[in-house]
């Protein structure tokens, strides 16, 4: 681990999906941290560079969480159902950089997350 290793908060209340996201992020070289609700979100966000937010959660308001995570310049990747266009638009308006369907991360998670993290490294002048 070095100072350029991205720290990514995973906000998801589904244990299996949360575990999968944490594992995928670790696999591509990020330092993932998990939050299962918006309780303690402020504390969990401290020191995070980015967040992955599950939009279909029941334990928190996902749009509010996207807004809060995006504050302070954090990158936010939201994940949700591919056919919920209205929720996708709301997440983008709230500050999500992208909204991906669950299937995309299920089928091609490592490459998709690596590309997302590498874009940030290139934008900041770091080498991926």
Structural features, described:
By secondary structure, the chain is of the alpha/beta class. The protein has a single domain, classed as Rossmann fold. It contains five helices and five strands. The chain has a five-stranded parallel beta sheet with strand order 2-1-3-4-5, with helices on both faces. α1 packs parallel to α5 and α3 runs parallel beside α4. The chain is globular, with a radius of gyration of 13 Å. The C terminus is likely disordered.
Structural class based on helices, strands and sheet pairing:
alpha/beta
Helical segment count: 5
H and E order: EHEHEHEHEH
Measured between the Cα atoms of the first and last residue, the distance is: 13 Å
Q: How much helix is in the residues?
A: 40-55%
Q: How many domains, in number, for the residues? A: 1
Question: What gyration radius follows from the Cα positions, in whole Å?
Answer: 13 Å
Shape: globular
In round numbers, the mean pLDDT is 89
Strand arrangement within the widest β-sheet reads 2-1-3-4-5
Q: Runs with pLDDT <50, length 5+?
A: 124-128
Main sheet, how many strands, which sense, barrel?
Answer: 5 strands, parallel
CATH level 3 topology: Rossmann fold
Q: What is the number of strand segments?
A: 5
CATH class: Alpha Beta
User: In percent, how much strand structure appears in the residues?
Assistant: 15-25%
CATH superfamily: Response regulator
CATH architecture level-2 label: 3-Layer(aba) Sandwich
Provide the descriptors you would attach to this structure in a database record.
single chain, 128 residues, alpha/beta, Rossmann fold, five-stranded parallel sheet, globular, disordered C terminus
């Amino acid at each position: 681990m070095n100072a350029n290793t991205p720290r990514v908060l995973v906000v998801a209340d589904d244990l299996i999906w949360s575990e999968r996201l944490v594992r995928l992020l670790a696999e591509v070289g990020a330092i993932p941290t998990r939050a299962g609700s918006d309780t303690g979100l402020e504390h969990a966000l401290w020191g995070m560079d980015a967040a992955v937010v599950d939009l279909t959660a029941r334990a928190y308001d996902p749009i509010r969480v996207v807004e809060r995570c995006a504050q302070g310049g954090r990158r936010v990747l939201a994940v949700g159902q591919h056919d919920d266009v209205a929720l996708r638009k709301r997440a983008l308006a709230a500050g999500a950089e992208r909204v991906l369907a669950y299937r995309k991360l299920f089928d091609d998670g490592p490459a998709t997350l690596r590309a997302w993290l590498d874009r940030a490294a290139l934008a900041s002048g770091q080498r991926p």
